[in-house]
Design a protein that fits this description.
The complex is a heterodimer of chains A (453) and B (541). Chain A is of the alpha/beta class and 453 residues long. Helix content of chain A is 34%, strand content 24%. Chain A has helices spanning 4-13, 18-29, 55-59, 70-88, 154-157, 179-189, 224-237, 289-308, 330-335, 344-357, 360-363, 384-392, 412-420, 422-425, 441-452; strands at 67-68, 96-101, 110-116, 133-140, 148-153, 175-178, 202-216, 221-222, 260-271, 274-281, 313-320, 324-327, 365-372, 395-404, 430-436. In chain A, helix 10 (344-357) packs parallel to helix 12 (384-392). Chain B is globular. Chain B has 541 residues and is an alpha+beta fold. Chain B has 25 helices and 11 strands. The chains are: A alpha/beta (453), B alpha+beta (541).
Chain lengths: 453, 541
């Protein structure tokens, strides 16, 4: 990996505005090598309610039982149906679907869907407090009044616990569901568009049933031509057809075995298949909500494609800061955090390399989705744009998601994509969606529509 | 779900003997079940009560986060359920020694359920049996009315924290000898004070006159007394008769109010909805004491499982195993609140106070810190004192009365604060205060406390229902107001208004605050929400 400090010096030598330099430096200052995965802040129990403690968990050291989704997926359909009915009956909908929780490590297709609902009541709101106040709880042990006993990066954590994927105080009611199922829900519930088929490329061991097998004597649909042929054969061998120029079909003898029928049988089908590249900026500036947004959106896109291609989707995951690397599974993709500078071009280049080396363009519908906060040290896109043009020569769709940090606007990536004119010239191939880091789930889904419709 | 085997049941019975010998009291029978994970999944949304009515929200899996308990006041997640007989649930692969410990813990809970006065209304009946019959009622209604039963269930549940639980309890404690005639009550409580607005001196004279009349003639005293009253206030009898006819309004029990007063619900075709409301209300009232005694209940159970386990001859050799599990349960976290730990420590503190005679006036009078520390009359009444507290207290009183500086100092407790350092963009966790009062207030603020909402029938216009939320320094969760009111409007059959207070938070001056966090002001304003034809409007008062 190249040294970002050195790289920064190089950039500086080429001339860099002080404001931009400051921002790049800021990016490097973020602590390196966050531990990936669980553990949110130094004191995960800070906001745990008194009432969250209960005997089974505490005495028997038992975690809350994770719900196997089989129990509930069917119920989910019924519940959603009920919710639709509810709207017809004149009451607001109550169930929200598609909230994502951290994907598990087992198998890359495994992600988590949680339908949720809230029982609304008149309740006191404990979150009303002056800005900058984070509430209070108990504590024990040493420490003078005023002494700081732990710190937590704001961006890393979001403001409140329970917002992060897979958090919810370690007690999230999780429901593992296949991504396929999520894709179906997304397509149906959120009316995401169906894909246009772009050609069937490769055979699979899936079958459909066709009337292709012939069977003599009995069956469903008579194959008249074949039957006639059989009758002629039979009569020739019986000597019943002495002169081919003078045929008298009324004199033909017909054996039961002459009748040829077609019956249903398995047939190989040709199906489209897709290769999706997920690219994520994991540079220093990407910590916190931005990553969550991008990753959430990527899971949804992945699920949607999985459904659209009836499971025939392969995915590749690429992370980049100033350099890009491919990671093996979604879990790593989602959880890796590294601090460093940003160079979008590195990721695009890697995609091109992989596609070329494995000759993917010939066999696959290729999709590329890239998520970033929009920072790029390659300010003008001088390196990115050429790589991007190359990608556009073979992709079915490329979608760039920019999750802007609060306070920033019109980031470098957005600017150079816009300036390149590609968005305008090739709207079928390249889409961009800019959202704010505080975007809600509905906005994320809206974004997916923008990227893939 | 199956009963524990005979071997394990024998262990339980042994625990009961020892617990009884130590002073705990509970009924003879108890049921213990082994549960599988699958059972647990199905049981937990139903508060571990297998016979609780079916409801779709139980089927929707919910994300649990901060304040979860506030959202679902009926989710104590107890392994023991307070019913007759008490039922408890166990994991199927516990070693015997662990079962011994858990059984003691469970017996602590059972003793608590059956002796704490806040559970008084649950003492006489089998809730699971009742729940089963309710479940059948609802299932039957569902067969007839379809999804509308679930809407009514939902609307009922949306107000099931607005039940006057204390009102429900108080008649259970009326001392019979204090009974006086309702005429007398009316005369002294209402007529003289409200209607005549008598000066205090005159009022006391009247009381004295009554006492004298009774003293002279026990049998006829009251009649003689009232003869004079009628001479003085001829209108008194008429007023009293009128007052008798006025129906008392359940001001703090919205559920009961709707059941009794909603014209919509009293229509023939809507009668069935009342049954649903009754079921939900009953369930809510049943679980109220559980929520209100979490710290005490867990502290009490932890105290007893520790005490009884250590002297149990059957667990020789597992002291270390026990210590490990027990420490996990009852250690004070560096940051956060553990009701087991807090409750158990308070119990020990109180036992100590009882043992040293620190429970009386003599000790209270002392102000010298050293003298207080060394005070010891060797009264040795610690446990007796504990038993009294377990019978008579709830969490609120327990924390309010007993968390003092001695306690917080002894266990090194403090309030942890969390604040933003805007310059470095980090949240800082810091020791906010070691003052017992602050600690106490922090714990009290985290206790279950439904908002105080009263019905003001006289303020409703043209049949609308007027609710007044009494401001206690907290605003209501604003996103929930609309849907809650949709439900109330439906059940009431006419528009509903809610008067409440809302916070307006001033942003700190000078942007994000360069010198640390600036004190930002919260100002409060009184607003009225009106729900009419499912449309919510808001008006500032």
């Amino acid at each position: 990996m190249k040294d970002p400090q050195k790289y920064l010096e190089e950039l500086k030598a080429k001339g860099l505005e002080p404001e931009r330099e400051e921002r790049f430096r800021e990016e490097l200052r973020v602590t390196r090598e966050f531990p990936s995965g669980r553990g949110r802040g130094p004191f995960p129990d800070f906001s745990r309610s008194l009432y969250a403690w209960h005997d089974l968990a505490v005495l028997m050291g038992q975690e809350r039982v994770p719900n196997p989704y089989q129990l509930h997926m069917k119920a989910l359909d019924e519940l959603l149906e009920r919710d639709r009915q509810r709207e017809k009956d004149g009451f607001p909908r109550k169930i929200r679907v598609g909230r994502l929780i951290k994907p598990g490590k087992a198998g890359k297709g495994k992600i988590v869907v949680v339908p949720s609902t809230e029982e609304e009541k008149f309740l006191h709101d404990p979150t009303i407090r002056p800005p900058g106040e984070g509430g209070s709880t108990g504590g024990s042990g040493k420490g003078e009044e005023g002494e700081v006993i732990g710190e937590q990066k704001v961006r890393e954590t979001g403001e409140e616990p329970g917002q992060g994927p897979g958090q919810g105080e370690g007690e999230a009611h999780e429901m593992g569901a296949s991504a396929y199922e999520l894709g179906r829900v997304l397509t149906e519930q959120f009316q995401l568009p169906n894909l246009k088929e772009k050609g069937k490329k490769r055979s699979f061991t899936r079958y459909i049933y066709e009337l292709t097998d012939r069977n003599r004597g009995s069956g469903q649909v008579m194959d008249k031509k074949a039957t006639l042929r059989k009758i002629v054969e039979t009569n020739i061998s019986l000597g019943n057809l002495p002169d081919p120029s003078d045929l008298d079909p009324t004199r033909f003898l017909i054996s039961p075995r002459d009748k040829v029928y077609r019956i249903f049988s398995q047939e190989k089908d040709y199906e489209p298949q897709a290769m999706v590249f997920f690219l994520r900026d994991y540079s220093g500036s990407m910590a916190g909500k931005v990553t969550e947004l991008v990753a959430t959106q990527h899971v949804m896109i992945y699920s949607w494609l999985l459904y659209q291609y009836a499971g025939q989707v392969e995915s590749r995951f690429i992370l980049h800061d100033t350099e890009a690397k491919e990671v093996p599974d979604f879990d790593t993709y989602y959880n890796s955090r590294v601090a460093g500078g940003t160079e979008v071009a590195s990721a695009y280049r890697l995609v091109n390399e992989i596609v070329e080396k494995e000759n993917l363009a010939a066999d696959y519908n290729i999709y590329v989705f890239h998520g970033t906060d929009g920072d790029d040290w390659d300010t003008g896109g001088d390196k990115s744009i050429p790589e991007l043009v190359k990608i556009l020569s073979y992709v079915s769709r490329m979608g760039v998601t920019i999750a802007e940090h609060a306070g920033t606007q019109w980031t470098e990536v957005a600017r150079y994509l816009e300036n390149s004119g590609l968005l305008r010239d090739k709207p079928d191939l390249l889409r961009m969606d800019i959202m704010h880091e505080d975007a809600e789930e509905a906005r994320v889904i809206e974004g997916i529509k923008r990227l893939i419709s | 779900m199956e009963l524990i085997n005979q071997h394990t049941k024998a262990i339980m019975e042994g625990c009961k003997e020892r617990a009884r010998a130590a002073g705990l009291t509970f009924t003879d029978e108890s049921l213990e079940y082994i549960v599988t994970n699958r059972d647990l999944i199905e049981l937990s949304p139903k508060v571990m009560i297998p016979t609780l009515y079916d409801y779709w929200v139980h089927d929707v899996e919910v994300l649990r986060g901060k304040g979860e308990y506030e959202l679902y006041p009926h989710n104590p997640y107890e392994t023991v359920i307070n019913t007759r007989p008490p039922i408890s649930f166990y994991n199927d692969n516990n070693p015997d020694w662990l079962n011994v410990m858990i059984f003691y813990h469970v017996l602590g809970h059972i003793d608590f359920f059956q002796n704490n006065l806040y559970f008084r209304h649950t003492w006489e009946y089998d809730f699971t049996g009742q729940a089963l019959s309710d479940k059948r009622v609802i299932a039957k209604l569902r067969a007839e009315k379809g999804r509308w039963v679930d809407y009514i269930l939902e609307f009922a549940r949306s107000i099931d924290n607005l039940v006057a639980y204390h009102d429900e309890l108080s008649p259970l404690f009326a001392a019979p000898e204090a009974a006086t005639s309702s005429r007398l009550d009316y005369y002294f409580d209402v007529f003289l004070q409200v209607e005549k607005k008598l000066p205090v001196g005159d009022y006391l004279k009247e009381v004295a006159r009554y006492n004298e009349a009774i003293a002279q003639n026990r049998e006829e005293g009251e009649r003689i007394f009232f003869a004079e009253v009628t001479a003085k206030y001829p209108e008194m009898e008429a007023h009293f008769a009128k007052a008798q006819n006025v129906k008392r309004v359940e001001r703090r029990d919205l559920m009961k109010f709707l059941i009794e007063n909603s014209e919509f619900l009293s229509r023939d075709e809507n009668q069935w909805m009342r049954s649903v409301l009754e079921v939900v209300r009953k369930t809510s009232i049943f679980f109220q004491p559980q929520i209100r005694t979490k710290i005490m209940n867990e502290g009490w159970a932890s105290y007893w499982h520790e005490k009884l386990f250590l002297v149990d001859d059957r667990i020789k050799g597992h002291e270390v195993d026990f210590a490990r599990v027990h420490a996990g349960v009852t250690s004070m976290p560096r940051v956060g609140m553990n009701p087991y730990a807090l409750g158990m420590r308070l119990m020990y503190q109180l036992k100590d106070a009882g043992d040293k005679g620190k429970t009386g006036y003599e000790f209270d009078r002392l102000s010298d810190r050293e003298q207080r520390r060394h005070f010891d009359t060797e009264a040795g009444k610690g446990e007796e004192y504990l038993f009294k507290i377990r019978s008579n207290y709830c969490d609120y009183l327990f924390i309010k009365d007993f968390v003092d500086q001695e306690f917080t100092d002894r266990y090194d407790l403090f309030v942890t604060g969390k604040r933003l350092d805007p310059q470095r963009m980090v949240w800082q966790y810091y020791v906010k205060s070691r003052d017992a009062k602050e600690y106490r207030d922090m714990v009290l603020a985290s206790l279950y406390h439904p908002p105080h909402i009263e019905i003001a029938p006289e303020r409703g216009e043209e049949g609308s229902l007027y609710l007044v939320h009494h401001f206690e320094g907290k605003q209501l969760v604003s996103e929930y107001i609309a849907n809650t009111m949709v439900g109330i409007e439906y059940l009431w059959g006419a528009p509903v208004q809610l008067e409440t207070s809302e916070a307006h938070i001033e942003q700190p001056r000078g942007g994000a605050g360069r010198e640390g966090v600036e004190e930002a002001d919260i100002t409060w304003q009184r607003v009225v929400y009106t729900m009419k034809d499912k449309v919510l409007s808001r008006q500032v008062l």
